[in-house]
Amino acid sequence: MSTVKCVGILTSGGDAPGMNAAIRAVTRSAIYNGVRVKGIYRGFKGLILDEIEEFKTQNVSNIIQRGGTILKTARCGEFKTPEGRKQAYDKLQEHGIDALIAMGGDGTLTGARIFAQEFNFPIVGLPGTIDNDLYGTDTTIGYDTALNTIMECVDKIRDTATSHDRLFFVEVMGRDAGFLALNGAIASGAEAAIIPEISLEKDQLAEMIETGFRKSKNSSIVLVAESEITGGAMGVAERVKKEYPQFDVRVSILGHLQRGGSPTAQDRILATRMGVAAIDALLDDQRNVMIGIQNDQIVNVPFSKAIKNDKPINRDLLYTLRVSSI
């Protein structure tokens, strides 16, 4: 028999579409299994500040279609200190919470792992990030919606790029991962993607222009992953202006547009499956694992693997983009 009688849920770090679908699934799955649920507002910060409320089924009614997170999210410097984590632990004890589900990206899971080890506390992580950069899961909650947003935006930018014979550099999110840029480029028919995973191996800009880029086209769109390694869209555009002044260059930075919006069917289904699986994992006495999906099967990935290992880019996709953009 599981010892879990009351579970807390929080969202931390950057928001991602589908987080609400996961909150709904966790809440209802817990109640279905006779476990109480407490919603913790504003991530680890709200935990320290005691922003905790008991959740019933109706707390999560009508939220599956909403972007963002009803639990709000915040960065929390205090949680990085032993004192802050002790305060958080005391609040969990005070509220009778005996297990935690933490949803977010790399930083969230890193904090959860340290906390779980320090206090021997059961935590299950949910991969909520549009960057898709967590190891051990084929996709993360929010990634598909962000990809669709990028595709819609680039479709609109292409209308103006074509009208003016311009070269557009479109910057997309992803921190140091090129998943959004690469798959966004394939989905939107862009000419190229400049991503951090390849930047250290070769000069992607020079290669792109020297392979007869644009010889058959009057306008072009290139997706650039935001990253110090790539220099972002502004950095790439500056280089083009200096080295290839014949191009009429424009930059578009999509920014926080990519994080918002109603989640796609795929993200709602993924988030719901993962939310239910998180409760199942806790009831099965699993701890310090992230719920992932591999080949459409739910898997439990140890925190240490999910955080420490870099998720590799699928190099076949680079070939696909190159072939389909001539």
Secondary structure: number of strands = 11
* Gross morphology: elongated
Give the biggest sheet: 7 strands, mixed
Average of pLDDT: 93
SSE-based structural type: alpha/beta
CATH fold group of the largest domain: Rossmann fold
Distance between the termini: 60 Å
How many separate domains? 2
Task: Provide the β-strand percentage band.
Answer: 15-25%
What Rg is obtained from the alpha carbons, in whole angstroms? 21 Å
Q: Treating each run of at least 4 consecutive H or I residues as one helix, how many helices?
A: 12
Widest β-sheet, arrangement of strands? 3-2-1-4-5-10-11
CATH architecture of the largest domain: 3-Layer(aba) Sandwich
Task: Enumerate the spans where pLDDT stays under 50 for 5 or more consecutive residues.
Answer: none
Helix content: 40-55%
Order of helices and strands: EHEHEHEHEHEHEHHEHEHEEHH
- CATH C-level class of the largest domain is Alpha Beta
Write a structural description:
This protein is an alpha/beta fold and about 325 residues long. The chain has two domains: about 5-140 and about 265-310, Rossmann fold (3-Layer(aba) Sandwich), CATH 3.40.50; about 145-260, Rossmann fold. Helix content is about 40%, strand content about 20%. Helix 1 runs parallel beside helix 10 (about 265-285), helix 5 crosses helix 6 and helix 6 runs parallel beside helix 12 (about 315-325). The radius of gyration is 21 Å and the shape is elongated. About 50% of the residues are buried. The mean pLDDT is about 95.
